[in-house]
Amino acid sequence: LSVARNISILGATGSIGTQTLDVVRLNSEAFNVTALTANKNANLAIEQIREFRPDFVAIADPETAENVKEAVSDLCQIEVGEAALVKAASYPSADIVVAALVGFSCLKPLLAAIGCGKDVAIANKESLVAAGSLVKEALGQSASRLVPVDSEHNSLFQCLQNSKKGVRRVLITASGGPFLHHSKEQLMEVSPNEAVRHPRWDMGAKISIDSATLMNKGLEVIEAAVLFDLPARMIEVLVHPQSLVHGMVEYLDGSTHVVMYEPDMKVAISDALSRLASCSSDKPFHSESLNSGCSFLDFSSGRTLEFIPPDFQRFPCLKLAYRSLEIGGCAPLVLNAANEVAVESYLAEKIGFLQIPMLVEAVLGQYDGQELGSVDDILYRDSWAREQARCWLREYGHSK
Ligand code: NDP
Q1: Which of 214, 213, 197 is CA-nearest to residue 205?
Q2: If you average pLDDT over residues 185-212, what whole number do you get?
Q3: SS3 257
Q4: Measured distance CA(384)–CA(365) in Å, rounded
Q5: Which of 5, 54, 309, 387 is most buried, most CB within 10 Å of its CB?
């Protein structure tokens, strides 16, 4: 008999969070939602609480928390703010934590989950990028297992788990985003509305802009370096507009292992959940019966697969991410913080699309090579980079 696993979903109202709940809905005998978190989307949080009946809910935003409490305080315990997010991440009955908050807000809850030995399905890339060494150090002192949800890393994880051969390099694919064939002149004019319309994936606004600039791929290169302990030279990016191949591992014997599926995050989410559920020791779990709800690939329909090297000239964010890995220390953190400010400003129409890499490059250039230390150091360095970014904006941004 299989025993259901309790899941705590950090960022339940987001794109990854709602798709995780889709997987839970499809596999209701395998998973219970024991805790969930939201920030500003009160209506969706209320709906989710009514449907999934978690024991504990954390709402980051105080005003939203009041609205949620008013509607459903009789159904679960609801707390507010960062401390509540940390509590959801370390909730005693949770077997698995899904880390799907956006941006830097995920770092403290993630470290809390690892600190108390929870198994973590990690979607949030910014905390790995900004504080990779700290996350690894915490993992070294904990029994936690970390399985990536990001489709590329989950694919690499699947390939690497299934073989003991020597690795020559790993390849991660990029759809190329909505502006793959735009000239530099066209890129100067693209609006946030055009940039958030991703051709293959339905995602949150921040990651959609990152996909359009290829910074998302840059963050993924850093994420892969952290997750798989690889130097930058062993991680390659290929533009693959069909988004059917998600990750490849090239082995020293000349073979390449590939993970392919229709672009649907639920495949990676259910892989991560089933791996974590199966390896938690004492309770039986039948992962073979899990359903991701994804449609199957039809190879007989004559589909073509293209692979193109990325254009670093039109998409300099990718090059900046490699540069930050080469610089090391806090450079990826600085890159990430500057990028978060740049994307926010672009969405608010305070800078143009091509100013995103300009801002990031300017802030990265100010970094003095200081090493990563404690969480406080990271928070300090993060706010330093954001302040540098805001200085740049005051000089070069246009206010609206
Ligand atoms: P969304 O913007 O769709 O969702 C983010 C979630 O975090 C929401 O639940 C949101 O709450 C909550 N949130 C936002 N700001 C805060 C805050 N300051 N404090 C606490 N909670 C907050 O993001 P995605 O789901 O797209 O992405 C989540 C993470 O996963 C990111 O790191 C992204 O890079 C990564 N990822 C996403 C993929 C995707 O396909 N979407 C693919 C691979 C990785 P609310 O909505 O209530 O305001």
Answers
A1: 197
A2: 88
A3: strand
A4: 13
A5: 54
Please tell me if the CB atom of residue 126 comes closer than 6 angstroms to any atom of ligand 1.
yes
Cβ–Cβ contacts within 10 Å for residue 41, how many? Answer: 19
Q: What is the mean pLDDT of the chain?
A: 94
CA of 16 to the centre of ligand 1 (A): 7
Distance CA 333, CA 232 (A): 16
Q: Are 30 and 4 in contact (CB under 8 A)?
A: yes
Residue to mutate, 10, 13, 15, ligand 1, most ligand atoms under 8 Å from C-beta: 15
133 CA distance to ligand 1 centroid (A)? 22
pTM of the prediction? 0.93
Identify the residue whose C-alpha is closest to ligand 1 atom 32.
124
Nearest Cα neighbor of 308 from 190, 189, 214 is 214
Which of 64, 102, 211, 261, when mutated, tests ligand 1's pocket best, judged by the most ligand atoms within 8 Å of its CB?
102
Whether 215 is in the pocket of ligand 1, judged by its Cβ within 6 Å, is: no
Q: How large a percentage of the chain has pLDDT more than 70?
A: 99
Residue 399 banded pLDDT, cuts 50, 70, 90? low
The DSSP call for residue 400 is -
169 CB burial (10 A radius; 0-12, 13-18, 19+): middle
Cα distance between residue 209 and residue 194, in whole Å: 9
